[in-house]
Specification:
heterotrimer, A alpha/beta (413), B mainly alpha (305), C mainly alpha (577), B: 305 residues, mainly alpha, ABC transporter involved in vitamin B12 uptake, BtuC, two-stranded antiparallel sheet, 71% helix, C: 577 residues, two-stranded antiparallel ribbon, 20 helices, Leu_Ile_Val-bd (chain A), Extracellular ligand-binding receptor (chain A)
Chain lengths: 413, 305, 577
C-alpha cells in the first residue's frame, strides 16, 4: 500500500514537472451562421459602446436604446458598411447613476477598439461621461440628452460655447421643444391659464422651464408650478391643489409612466382639460395607462411623424421583426438608431482607405461633425455645438389612445 | 374652503391605503419585533396578483361586471399576498427567530429588494407602470364642488370595516388572545399551551391578506400600479404604525389617516408645496418618536432586548 | 458534521476516483460545438489528453485542483478530509458554473453532453468529480483544524507574513483580472470569473482546512504594526500588477470611497450598535459641500478653496449634521432609531433633489468638478510614471484613497480601543447597564453619530472630486442599504470586514455586468442567504463573534483562545443564477 502511494505521488509529481509540449491546438472558428453573405472582417472587430439604464425604473427606455443600436450595428454588419471590420455592440448599464455611468465610460474607453459610445439617456449621467470620453477622444452621440448646457455651456442663451468636441446628440434640446409646445398651446389652441407640472428630473424640469418662459411671453398665465415624484402613482395632492385655480390646460414635463396616470386622475377629479407633454410621453403606453381620459391630450416630438418618413417605417418594421414584443423601441429607440448609424457612417468614411488606430479618432470626430444623412427622424446632421440641426418638431394629439400628428413645423424664434 | 375639503378627501383616501398596510406592520412588529420591510412589497405583489388574475383568469365576457370582477380580484390579491408572506416567513424569517435583531431586519431588506426585482423581471411589462382595471363603479360623488371618487369611498369603508373586524377578532377570539399573549411574552405563552410559531404564522397571514386587499383597492382607485408602490407606501405605513403606537390596531389605522392628511395638507399649505410633502411626513415621524415614542395609542415602550 | 455512512476504504477510493476524474474532466472537451456568441473560452471543443500542459483558463485551474486533490488523497496530509472537501467544492463549482452557462448559451443539454456526433462531458465529469471528492470525506468525521506553532524566530515569522501578503496581493490582482474585462469582445467573462472564484474558493478552503489561514491571522495579530505596514505596501503595489489598468483603478478608487464610508458606518452600527439606515446622506453632505467649494462652474457659491481646507469643512459640516441626526437617540432606541435615521436620509434626498438653497443642483446635479491637483500641478486623473513604470490615469486617486482608508482605519482602531470605544461597546451590549456604570450614554451615542458622519464627510469630499459630478441619485436609500450590507457582510465591528464587504459588493456587480438585469435580484437574495448562513459576517470581529454566532455555538472557549471559533471552512458560494 505504502509503495503504491509513493508511486502515485512520484507519478503525479513527475507529470507536473513535464513542461508544456509544443502541441499545436487550434479551434476552427465557426458559429457565425447569421447571414449568407459573408463580409470581409479580416481587419478585426470594433466596438460600439452603449451607456444606458438597463436596470431600474428607466429600463424600458434604456432597453429601447440598446436594441435600436443593436439593430443598426447588425444591419451595418450585414451590409458590410465598414470595410474589413466586424462591429459589435457593448451595452453598459448606468443604473441612471452618474457615478456608475462614469465607471462604464472608463471601462469602454479603456478598450482601444471602442470607436464611439451611444448614450446616455439622462443628462445628469452624460455630465460624467462627457469628460471621460473626451479625454480619450472617443465620439459620444446621445439619443436622448436634452439639457442645452451639455453642448452650449451654463450660459447657453447668451454666450453659447461648445463644451466637448467629441459630444454630439441627435435629439433636440429643451429650449426648442418647450417653446414650440408653448406656441402651439397658447397661440393655436388658445389656452391662457396653464398649470405646469414637472417630475423633478433634468429632462422634465428643463422642458417645463423652457415651456413656462415662452408661454408667459406669449401672454399666458401660469397658474401653478408643481412637482411630482418620478415614481408616484397617486397624484391627488397636486390635482387637489391646481383644481381650484381652474387651469385650461396642464403642461407636464416628464415621461409617460407618470404622465398617463396623471392625465387620467386629472380628468377623474372633474377637470376636463388637456394635458400636454414632450417627446417623453409619446409612447403607446401613455394611452394604455391613461385610457379614454387621454383623448385630446397633446404632445410634441422631434422630427416629422414616423409614418410620413419611409426611413422611420423601415426602422419600426425591422425593429419589431427583430425584438420581442415586450421590448418596445420606446421613446428614444429611433434616435438611438439614428445616432448609431451616424457613428457607423462616419466610421465607414474614416476607414474607407485606412486601418483603425488611435490616430483615426480625430478624423472620426471630423467625419461625425460633417455627417449628413436621412434617418428615422428626418435629416441627421450636427451644428457647430454638436447639436442636431434637425429642428423639425411635430405636435401630436391623442385619438383613441394613439398619438396622431397634428402639425409639423420649426421653432421660429 | 373647497380646496381644503377636497384635499381632506384625498388625504383620507391615501390614509385608508396606508392604514391597511400599517396593520400588517404593527401586528408583525408587535409580535416578533421585526420591521418587516418586505411588507410594502407584499402589498405591491398583491396588486400585481390581482392584475394577473384580471388579465389571464377572468373570462373576457364578465370583465366589465364589477360585482363579479371585484370580489375575484380582491380574493386573488389577498391569496397571492398571503401565500407569499407565508413562504417568506417560513424560509427567511423563521430560521432567524433567535438571531440577533439586526439579522432579520437585513433579511427583510433583502426580501424587499428581491421581490421588487423579481416582479420587474418576470411580470410582463412591469418595467413601466401598468394600467389597472377600474373594477368598481367609476365616477364621483359630488358634494358641492368637492368630488369624492367612489373607489376612494370603497377604500375608506373597507379599511374601517376590516379594522373593526380585526379588533374584535383579536380581543374576543382564542387565537386573538394567543396573539396578544405571544406579543407580551412568547416564553410564557408557550407555557400556557400556546404555539408561538402558529401564532406568528397567523399574524403574518392576516397582515398579508390586509396588504393584498389594500393593493387591489389601491390599483382600482388609481387605475395604475408600478413596482415602486411597495417601498413608498411601505414607509408611509410604517410611519403610521409608529405614529399610532406599535401593537395598536386602532392606532395603526388612525395613524394612516393622519399620514394621508399630513401629506395632502402639507402639500397644499406648507412652504415647499408638493415637492416637500413627504418631508412633513418624516418630520411628524421624528417628532412623534422623540416626544412620544410610544405613539398615540401605544403602551409605554417596553424595553426590548 | 459527523455523518460517517461510508466505510473508510470506500470513501478513500471515492476520493481518489474524484481527483482522477477532475483531472480527466479538465482534459475532456466541454462543449460540443462553437456557440453562436463566439467560442467558449479555452478551446472548449477540444480534448487535451495528448497535451495536458497546453490547458488554459478554467481548464488549467481545474487540472491544478485535480492534481492537488490527487496528491492530497494519496499522501497523508494533516486534516486530509477537510482539505479534500474544500477542493471538492471548488471542482464542483467550476463544473456547475460551466455546465449551467454552456447549457444556457448553447440552448440545451446537447451543448454539454453529446450532439452532432461530438461529445463533451467535461462539465458533467467535473460535477461528478466534485461530488465524489466531497462524498469521499464522509468516511470518517472531519478532523480538527491543525494548529501550527506561532512562536517561531521573529525573522521567520516576518518572512511568513511577507510571503502571505505577497500571495494576497497576487490573489487580489488575479481576482480582479480573472475572466478578463467583459464586454462584447469577451462575452463569457462572467462565467470565467465565477469559475475562477470556484477555483480560488476551493484552494482557500483547503488552506483554511490545513490551518494556514488561522496561522497567518494569528501571526498578523502578533505583529500588528509590521502587518499593517506590509499590507499598506501591498495596496500601493497593486497598480503595478496586472490589475493596474485605468478601469480597475477607477473601480478600486470607487470601492475605496465606499469602504471608507463603510468603516465610518461601522462605528455607528458595529461599535455603538445604533442602526443607521440613512447613512449615505453624510457622504452626500460631504460631497455637496466639496462640490460647492471646488470652483465648479455649476455651483452657486463660486468659491474655490484648497482641498485640505475643503476636507476639513466637509467633515465639520457632515459632523454637525451627524450630531443633529444623532440627537433623537437621546430618547429613541433600537428599531425606532433606525426609522428616524431612515427618515433623515429621505429628507436629505428630497431636499437634494429639489435643489435646496441652490446648493445641490437638483436633478441637474453639480457637474464638472475639477480634479484634484498634485503639488506640481498634475491633475489626479492624469496618468503618471513612477519608478519607470507608466501607471494608468486615476492611479493618483487610488493612492489618495488608500491613504484615506489607512487613516480612517487608524482612527477606527484607536477609537475602538479608547475609553469612548469601550463605552460604545458597553452601550451596544446593554444600554441600561452602561448607564448604571456611569457612562454618559447620551453623549456617547451622539459622539458615535458624529464620528461616523465626519468620516463619511471626508470620504464625500474625495468622492466629489473623483466622480466629478455630484447629484442626488448617488445618495438614495439603496446606497445606504448597500453600505449597511457591506458592513454586515464583512462582519460588524471588524475593520478588515468592512473593507472586504465593500469590495465584494462593488466588485461583483462590476465583474458580472453581463447579468446587470439580475444584479439587484441576486443582491437581495445574497443578503437573505448571508443572514441565514453566516450572520457574523465573513471576517467577524473577535468580541462580536460569540454574540452573533448564535447561542448554540457549542464548546465556545473564552478569552484565552480568541481565534478558535468552531468555524467550517466554507468555499465561496457561487451565485450561479
Amino acid at each position: 500500500m505504502r509503495k503504491k502511494v509513493a508511486t502515485a505521488a512520484v507519478l503525479a509529481a513527475g507529470a507536473l514537472l513535464i513542461t508544456s509540449c509544443s502541441t499545436n491546438k487550434s479551434e476552427t472558428p465557426g458559429g457565425n451562421a447569421a447571414g449568407g453573405n459573408q463580409c470581409d472582417t479580416s481587419k478585426g472587430t470594433l466596438t460600439v459602446g452603449v451607456i444606458a439604464p438597463l436596470s431600474g425604473e428607466l429600463t424600458a427606455l434604456g432597453v429601447g436604446i440598446r436594441n435600436s443600436a443593436q439593430l443598426a450595428v447588425d444591419q451595418a454588419n450585414e451590409k458590410c458598411t465598414v470595410k474589413g471590420y466586424k462591429l459589435v455592440l457593448d451595452p453598459q448599464d448606468d443604473e441612471k447613476n452618474p457615478q456608475k455611468a462614469g465607471q462604464a465610460a472608463t471601462k469602454l474607453s479603456s478598450d482601444p477598439n471602442t470607436v464611439g459610445v451611444i448614450g446616455t439617456l439622462n443628462s445628469s449621467t452624460s455630465q460624467t461621461v462627457q469628460p471621460i470620453l473626451s479625454g480619450k477622444k472617443i465620439v459620444q452621440i446621445s439619443p436622448a440628452n436634452t439639457s442645452p448646457t451639455l453642448t452650449r455651456g451654463e450660459d447657453y442663451k447668451n454666450a453659447p460655447k461648445r463644451q466637448f468636441d467629441t459630444y454630439f446628440r441627435v435629439c433636440t434640446t429643451d429650449d426648442s421643444q418647450g417653446p414650440f409646445a408653448a406656441n402651439y398651446l397658447v397661440q393655436k389652441a388658445g389656452k391662457k391659464k396653464i398649470a405646469v407640472i414637472a417630475d423633478g428630473k433634468t429632462y422634465g424640469e428643463g422642458l417645463a422651464n423652457e415651456f413656462e418662459a415662452k408661454a408667459k411671453a406669449n401672454g399666458a398665465t401660469i397658474v401653478a408650478r408643481e412637482k411630482v415624484g418620478e415614481k408616484d402613482t397617486d397624484f391627488s395632492g397636486v390635482i387637489g391643489k391646481i383644481k381650484p385655480l381652474a387651469p385650461e390646460a396642464v403642461y407636464y414635463g416628464g415621461e409617460y409612466g407618470a404622465a398617463g396616470p396623471l392625465s387620467k386622475q386629472i380628468k377623474e377629479a372633474g377637470l376636463n382639460i388637456p394635458l400636454m407633454g414632450g417627446d417623453g410621453i409619446v409612447d403607446d403606453t401613455y394611452g394604455k395607462l391613461g385610457g379614454a381620459a387621454t383623448q385630446g391630450d397633446l404632445a410634441t416630438s422631434v422630427g416629422a411623424p414616423a409614418d410620413k418618413l419611409p426611413e422611420a417605417k423601415a426602422f419600426i418594421d425591422a425593429y419589431n421583426a427583430k425584438f420581442p414584443k415586450d421590448q418596445g423601441y420606446s421613446a428614444y429607440g429611433s434616435m438611438s438608431y439614428d445616432a448609431t448609424n451616424a457613428l457607423i457612417g462616419a466610421l465607414a468614411t474614416t476607414l474607407a482607405n485606412a486601418d483603425w488606430s488611435d490616430s483615426q479618432r480625430e478624423t472620426l470626430i471630423k467625419n461625425v461633425q460633417s455627417y449628413k444623412q436621412k434617418g428615422a427622424n428626418g435629416d441627421i446632421a450636427f451644428d457647430q455645438y454638436g447639436d442636431s440641426t434637425n429642428k423639425l418638431l411635430t405636435v401630436y394629439q391623442v385619438n383613441n389612445g394613439k398619438f396622431e400628428p397634428v402639425e409639423t413645423g420649426k421653432l421660429d424664434s | 374652503m373647497t380646496t381644503l375639503l377636497q384635499q381632506l378627501v384625498y388625504g383620507l383616501i391615501l390614509g385608508g391605503t396606508v392604514g391597511l398596510i400599517a396593520l400588517g406592520y404593527t401586528m408583525v412588529y408587535g409580535i416578533v419585533q421585526l420591521i418587516n420591510f418586505a411588507h410594502g412589497e407584499i402589498f405591491m405583489v398583491g396588486a400585481f396578483g390581482a392584475l394577473a388574475t384580471f388579465t389571464w383568469v377572468i373570462p373576457e365576457g364578465v370583465k366589465g361586471t364589477w360585482y363579479i370582477t371585484l370580489p375575484l380580484m380582491v380574493i386573488a390579491g389577498a391569496v397571492v399576498s398571503m401565500v407569499l408572506a407565508l413562504i417568506i416567513e417560513r424560509l427567511a424569517y423563521k430560521p432567524l427567530r433567535n438571531a440577533p435583531r439586526l439579522a432579520p431586519l437585513i433579511t427583510a431588506l433583502g426580501v424587499s429588494v428581491a421581490l421588487k426585482e423579481a416582479v420587474r423581471l418576470w411580470y410582463p411589462g412591469a418595467t413601466a407602470p401598468l394600467p389597472f382595471p377600474k373594477a368598481f363603479l367609476a365616477g364621483n360623488i359630488d358634494i358641492g364642488p368637492v368630488v369624492f371618487p367612489k373607489t376612494g369611498l370603497l377604500l375608506i369603508v373597507v379599511t374601517i370595516v376590516l379594522t373593526t373586524l380585526l379588533q374584535i377578532y383579536i380581543n374576543k377570539s382564542r387565537m386573538g388572545r394567543a396573539m396578544r399573549a405571544t406579543a407580551q411574552d412568547p416564553d410564557v405563552a408557550r407555557l400556557m399551551g400556546i404555539n408561538p410559531d402558529r401564532t406568528i404564522v397567523l399574524t403574518f397571514a392576516i397582515g398579508a391578506v390586509l396588504a393584498g386587499v389594500a393593493g387591489v383597492l389601491y390599483g382600482i382607485h388609481l387605475t395604475n400600479i408600478s413596482i415602486d408602490i411597495g417601498f413608498q407606501n411601505g414607509i408611509f405605513a410604517f410611519t403610521a404604525a409608529v405614529l399610532g403606537g406599535i401593537g395598536s390596531i386602532r392606532g395603526a389605522v388612525i395613524g394612516g389617516f393622519i399620514i394621508g392628511l399630513v401629506k395632502t395638507i402639507a402639500g397644499q399649505y406648507l412652504p415647499g408645496g408638493t415637492q416637500y410633502d413627504y418631508v412633513w411626513i418624516f418630520v411628524v415621524l421624528i417628532a412623534v418618536l422623540v416626544f412620544r415614542p410610544q405613539g398615540l395609542f401605544g403602551e409605554t415602550e417596553r424595553v426590548r432586548a | 458534521m459527523t455523518k460517517t455512512f461510508l466505510s473508510p476504504p470506500i470513501a478513500r477510493i471515492l476520493g481518489i476516483a474524484g481527483a482522477v476524474l477532475a483531472i480527466v474532466a479538465a482534459m475532456l472537451p466541454w462543449t460540443t460545438f462553437v456557440l453562436n456568441k463566439g467560442a467558449w473560452p479555452d478551446k472548449a471543443t477540444l480534448q487535451f489528453f495528448d497535451a495536458p500542459f497546453a490547458l488554459t483558463g478554467f481548464r488549467w485551474e481545474l487540472f491544478l485542483v485535480g492534481i492537488v486533490a490527487l496528491v492530497c488523497s494519496v499522501v497523508k496530509v494533516p486534516a486530509q478530509r477537510r482539505v479534500l472537501r474544500g477542493l471538492g467544492f471548488g471542482v464542483a463549482a467550476i463544473g456547475l458554473v460551466n455546465f449551467l452557462f454552456i447549457t444556457a448559451e448553447g440552448g440545451g443539454l446537447g451543448a454539454v453532453t453529446a450532439a452532432d456526433g461530438a461529445s463533451a462531458f467535461g462539465s458533467v465529469a467535473a460535477l461528478v468529480a466534485g461530488g465524489l471528492l466531497i462524498l469521499g470525506t464522509f468516511g470518517q468525521p472531519l478532523e480538527e483544524i491543525p494548529r501550527w506553532k506561532t512562536n517561531l524566530p521573529t525573522p521567520v515569522e516576518y518572512l511568513g507574513l511577507l510571503v502571505s501578503f505577497a500571495v494576497l496581493l497576487y490573489v487580489v490582482s488575479l481576482t480582479l483580472t480573472a475572466g478578463g474585462q467583459g464586454g462584447a469582445a469577451n462575452p463569457y467573462s462572467g462565467p470565467m470569473f465565477l469559475s475562477f472564484l470556484g477555483f480560488g474558493g476551493g484552494l482557500m478552503a483547503a488552506a483554511a482546512g490545513l490551518g494556514i489561514l488561522r496561522w497567518i491571522s494569528k501571526l498578523s495579530e502578533k505583529h500588528r504594526a509590521f502587518s499593517i505596514i506590509v499590507l499598506l505596501l501591498c495596496a500601493f503595489l497593486l497598480p503595478f500588477t496586472n490589475a493596474g489598468t485605468e478601469y480597475w483603478m477607477t473601480v478600486a478608487a470607487n470601492i475605496g470611497v465606499y469602504a471608507a464610508t463603510a468603516i465610518g458606518l461601522n462605528i455607528v452600527v458595529g461599535l455603538a450598535g445604533l442602526l443607521d439606515l440613512g447613512y449615505v446622506a453624510f457622504l452626500g453632505i460631504g460631497a455637496f459641500v466639496a462640490a460647492n467649494l471646488s470652483g465648479a462652474a455649476a455651483s452657486s457659491l463660486g468659491i474655490h478653496l484648497p482641498f485640505y481646507l475643503v476636507v476639513i469643512i466637509s467633515a465639520a459640516i457632515a459632523g454637525i449634521f451627524g450630531a443633529v441626526v444623532g440627537s433623537p437617540t437621546l430618547r429613541v432606541r433600537g428599531d425606532y432609531l433606525a426609522i428616524v435615521t431612515l427618515a433623515f436620509g429621505e429628507i436629505f434626498q428630497i431636499a437634494a433633489r429639489n435643489n435646496i438653497g441652490g446648493l445641490t443642483g437638483g436633478s441637474n446635479s453639480i457637474p464638472n468638478i475639477p480634479p484634484l491637483q498634485w503639488f506640481d500641478g498634475t491633475a489626479y486623473n492624469e496618468s503618471i510614471t513612477l519608478f519607470g513604470t507608466p501607471l494608468p490615469s486615476g492611479v493618483l486617486y487610488y493612492f489618495l484613497i488608500v491613504v484615506l482608508i489607512a487613516a480612517v482605519m487608524a482612527v477606527f482602531a484607536n477609537l475602538k480601543n479608547s475609553r469612548m470605544g469601550r463605552a460604545w461597546i458597553a452601550i451596544r451590549e446593554d444600554e441600561d447597564a452602561a448607564r448604571a456604570m456611569g457612562i454618559k450614554t447620551g453623549k456617547a451615542k451622539i459622539l458615535a453619530f458624529l464620528c461616523g458622519a465626519v468620516l463619511a464627510g471626508i470620504a464625500g469630499a474625495v468622492f466629489a472630486h473623483k466622480t466629478s459630478t455630484v447629484g442626488y441619485e448617488s445618495f438614495l436609500f439603496m446606497e445606504s442599504v448597500t453600505l449597511l450590507a457591506a458592513v454586515i457582510l464583512g462582519g460588524m465591528g471588524s475593520i478588515p470586514g468592512a473593507v472586504l464587504g465593500a469590495s465584494l459588493l462593488f466588485v461583483l456587480p462590476e465583474k458580472l455586468r453581463a447579468f446587470s438585469d439580475y444584479r439587484l435580484l441576486i443582491f437581495g437574495l445574497a443578503l437573505i442567504l448571508i443572514m441565514r448562513f453566516r450572520p457574523q459576517g465573513l471576517i467577524p470581529d473577535r468580541h462580536r463573534r460569540a454574540e452573533l454566532a448564535g447561542e448554540d455555538a457549542e464548546g465556545h472557549t473564552l478569552a484565552e483562545t480568541p481565534g478558535d471559533e468552531p468555524e467550517q471552512p466554507r468555499p465561496q458560494e457561487v451565485p450561479a443564477r
